[in-house]
Design a protein that fits this description.
The complex is a heterodimer of chains A (112) and B (113).
Chain A: E1 3-5, E2 10-14, E3 19-21, E4 24-26, E5 32-38, E6 44-50, E7 56-58, E8 64-68, E9 73-78, E10 87-95, E11 99-102, E12 106-111
Parallel strand pairs in A: 2-12
Antiparallel strand pairs in A: 1-4, 3-9, 5-6, 5-10, 7-8, 8-9, 10-11, 10-12
Chain B: E1 3-7, E2 10-13, E3 19-26, E4 32-38, E5 44-52, E6 55-58, E7 64-70, E8 73-78, E9 87-94, E10 103-104, E11 108-112
Parallel strand pairs in B: 2-11
Antiparallel strand pairs in B: 1-3, 3-8, 4-5, 4-9, 5-6, 7-8, 9-10, 9-11
Classes of the chains: A mainly beta (112), B mainly beta (113).
């Protein structure tokens, strides 16, 4: 069965600093990978997705992620964090045409 | 464009009472539909998913049930709520027969007293 690991439950960064959120997956076939963001009390918003092709994918809000098959990773990055980026971030892997497995999330705190 | 609606946004119910949460999708046909529960620190737990009218797959045994009476309507129900049913419930949809991402509603905060 597929699984997703987000090893950092909480991360604190200073505004303007760079950010990297880690995600490792376990899946037997070619993975379909996603990153979502959730603000408190809201649903999840898709940041970016990887299906195939270029392993560096660009998303909304200045985020990008890099797929590394050899490391089974799909880390999310942003070069300069804004206070509005404070939220919870979820990595997910698609299973076939129907189900997606989510990680437990990483809460990002941004300090001025 | 496609939109997804969930209601109510917040619900407070006593233990043992029934539950009905509704989710509707607009702007697409024959979507895959999903119900998730989110508990603090535990990520998203898939409860049910549906690939068509009347077709429901249950992922976790529990006292909840789901129904899909119409193509773009997905309902989460319970006959008797338990304290452990408290949580944040999210509905999502995705395009059928693809690996396209899921799109989420704004969620329902359910508190059981």
């Amino acid at each position: 069965a597929q699984s997703v690991t987000q090893p950092d439950i909480h991360i604190t960064v200073s505004e303007g600093a760079s950010l990297e959120l880690r995600c490792n997956y376990s899946y037997g076939a070619t993975p379909y990978l996603f990153w979502y963001v959730q603000s408190p009390g809201q649903g999840l918003q898709l940041l970016l997705k990887y299906f195939s092709g270029d392993t560096l994918v660009q998303g909304i809000k200045g985020f990008e992620a890099e797929f590394k098959r050899s490391q089974s990773s799909f880390n999310l990055r942003k070069p300069s964090v804004h206070w509005s980026d404070a939220a919870e971030y979820f990595c997910a892997v698609g299973q076939g045409y129907q189900k997606v497995t989510f990680g437990i999330g990483t809460k990002l705190q941004v300090i001025p | 464009s496609q939109t997804i609606h969930q209601w109510p946004a917040t619900l407070v119910q006593p233990v043992g009472s029934p539950l009905s949460l509704e989710c509707t999708v607009e702007g697409t046909s024959n979507p895959n539909l999903y119900w998730y529960r989110q508990a603090a620190g535990r990520g998203l737990q898939l409860l049910f998913y549906s690939v068509g009218i009347g077709q429901i797959s249950s992922e976790v045994p529990q006292n909840l049930s789901a129904s899909r009476p119409q193509d773009r309507q997905f309902i989460l129900s319970s006959k008797k709520l338990l304290l452990s049913d408290s949580g944040f419930y999210l509905c999502a949809w995705s395009r059928p027969r693809t690996n396209q991402p899921q799109h989420f509603g704004d969620g329902t905060r359910l508190s059981i007293l």
